[in-house]
Amino acid sequence: MLEKGDKCIINFNESPHYQKGSFKEFIKHIKSIDFDKQCVLIADKNWSNNSGYDDNNTLNRIIEDIETEGFKVVVVQF
Question: Which of these, 23, 39, 43, 54, could form a disulfide with 71 (CB 3.0-4.6 Å)?
Answer without folding.
Answer: 39
